[in-house]
Structure formats: C-alpha cells, structure tokens
Amino acid sequence: MLALLAEGAPNKVIARRLNISVHTAKFHVAAILIKLGAANRTDAIAIAMRQGLVLV
C-alpha cells in the first residue's frame, strides 16, 4: 500500500491493483495517515521515507 501511495496512485488504482474495494483502499489509506501522524498522502510518504518504510 505504501509503495502504491509513493507512486501517486489514487484510491481507485490502489483498489484495482490490490484486488480490494475502493472503500477498503480508502480505509487503509486513512489508517496509514493516522498511524504515521500525517496530514495528507504526501506527508505520509515523506514520513515513511524518513523512517525507511518505503524506498522510491
């Protein structure tokens, strides 16, 4: 999920690539934002990169 966010994939693309519903993708993205303490998707990727959770 983080890798797809780092690619800039919208929820619809994430859902399709992971074979989940768009609602589930939105739920997981929201959970990632909360867990990382991020204000938005861009902030989440910046935090994840600093923590070594995702490589781009």
UniProtKB/TrEMBL annotation:
UniProt domain HTH luxR-type: residue ranges = 1-52
Q: Which UniProt keywords apply?
A: DNA-binding, Transcription, Transcription regulation
Pfam families, alphabetized: GerE
Instruction: Return the InterPro entries for the record.
Output: Sig_transdc_resp-reg_C-effctor, Tscrpt_reg_LuxR_C, WH-like_DNA-bd_sf
MF terms (GO), sorted A to Z: DNA binding
- One GO BP annotation of this record: regulation of DNA-templated transcription
Which PROSITE patterns is this protein grouped with? HTH_LUXR_2
Family matches, as PANTHER family = DNA-BINDING TRANSCRIPTIONAL ACTIVATOR DEVR_DOSR, HTH LUXR-TYPE DOMAIN-CONTAINING PROTEIN
Q: What name goes with this protein?
A: Transcriptional regulatory protein YdfI
